[in-house]
Amino acid sequence: MRVNPVGSPGEDEEEDPADPEEEYQRRLEEWERRNEELREQLGPFYVPLPPLDQPENPPAKIRGIYLTGHTVGHSRYQEILKMIEGTEINAVVIDIKDDHGLMSYQSNIEIIKEIDAHYQPVPITDIKATLEDLHKRGIYTIARIVVFKDPYLARAKPEWAIQKKGGGLWTEKGVAWINPYQKEVWDYNIAIAKEAALMGFREVQFDYIRFPENAAKVDREAYYPGSNGVSKAENIAAFLDYAMEQLKDYNVYVACDVFGVIATTWGDSDNIGQIWEDFATRVDYQKPMIYPSHYGRGYFGYEVPDAHPAGTVTRALTDAIKRNAPIKDPAIIRPWLQSFTATWILGHIPYGAKEVRQQIDAALALGIEEYILWSPVNKYPAGAFLSAEEADRRAAQMRQEREQKGLDWLNRTGRQAAESYLEAVQKKDWREAYALEIQRRRDGNQYRDWLNATRGKVKEYTITAVEKEGSALRLSLKLVMTSGEEERILEEQWTVSMENHVWRVKPSSRFLELLEGKAKAEETEQQD
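The structure corresponding to this sequence follows.
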């Protein structure tokens, strides 16, 4: 959806359009030509292009719940719809291919029919009618596609699966995974996403878009045909690029579920192929799974994070917001929140309406007005939800209060952001400084190496004035900087601007050169 859909204004238009009937015929012929090309290129993974004229798909702020295909096909589905009508919930995520690798409706894709990757019988007997009904009710629809954890496909096409070094399929507790390096696996899942768009889903959501966990153990046991020296993270990024290109004509938003912890760690620390920036720069929505139960003991300073729903969500989303701050046009953060009790955790607490609401409100306090709730059994406490009108009013009120106080999504003023930046520089806290400094020359890894290598130090600082300058701020400040035994006093003016909902600082070139320890920095002109 980061590009124009088929037939959208501005695509393939001529300056002087021909007769409408002739123009339509030209477009139709082009559509038929492209379909034939795709049929030849994709073979059993072929899905037709969407019609020339597609319905509008405007962005929406989503407050959603997750439903399995079996729930949608069950009698209690009507009870869920009734609950939705009286609350703030305005979206549903529906399994169309779940983590068993089975489709919840009858697919028309050749490869899926060939291996019969369906539930028997399919729980959703008429997917188009189901979606039409949801849309009439004003409910936004999201198709969940479990990508690389697909034991059915792995058994049906073992040559596409992760292999065991000793021969045969590698399995995790008896469950096989398909090989993320296998191009056919990419086409298989993208074909399902295309069909979901044609059925009427407004968004497709890729889940399990990663390699198996416990990578050190897995990599001792398994190998990935076709890897050819490409890292796991590089491969996942390549899949995303390919998927976005393949889906660009289908008028559908693309989202990805990611581990919540990847916003807090750096790089692909778990070696599963997930790096925050790789998703944020490619898809429309990034959905960190920040369930408090999924953080280990001691995380965010909590002995049992599961027992602190509001605090854990606040800390996790604070990290996510900071990760998005330096990125140009990042994916929208739409977190998964917990609506289940993690009985397997020592010290867990029961999750009911209160705990669910605490998570929603914690996100809202940071400016994040969207969320999706996960319950594996699809039971959600109605008492956690406001009416749609009250939820909108509360979000608007908090937005207005933040603007009036000059706060960003980290609940900082521009002055506080500058102070946090200078403190981070003093401590060589490169993660914090990188999030808050406006600079385009370095990515995070390069910035870390640069800041750690700097020889100059900020000994003291005083912000003497803050003036509004359009939508930005002009800060006047006095700095005492040292390099070796030499001490220098600077009087500076810096700009502080809001980028990606975060106040960020643009220090002068003179300050940066002194920080690097350059001897002639005092002769460098200050940047505006």
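The CA atoms of residues 129 and 387 lie 27 Å apart.
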